[in-house]
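For the sake of transparency, this paper describes our internal protein records without simplification. An entry from our holdings is shown next, in its original layout:
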Amino acid sequence: QLQLVESGGGLVQPGGSLRLSCAGSRNTLDYYAIGWFRQAPGKEREGVACIGGSNGKTYYSDSVKGRFTISRDNRKNTVWLQMNSLKTEDTAVYYCAAPSGSEYFYCPGFTWDDYTYRGQGTQVTVSS
């Protein structure tokens, strides 16, 4: 079973940057599409980015497009989320997740229930 571990969260001022990492438990992470989600207190979980496992195609939500970049290095078994120009409304717990099933290498969209494997999350706080 694929296990995912996020890291890189922390406290940053508005306008600053952070890079989150999502590491896989085995060397097959490169076959999986990986999505990043976030959940702020009192709000629904929101998908923000996804990268395909087979083609590396990327997808972004409108709320982060142009500010966040998702990338992967299959040799390092890691997916990153580079977050620039951070805003206070980006404050949330960020999760990485991967789908299962016969097409686990394609991004299934931004519905949380479509992702079977999920990390524990890392807190990102944007505040002055």
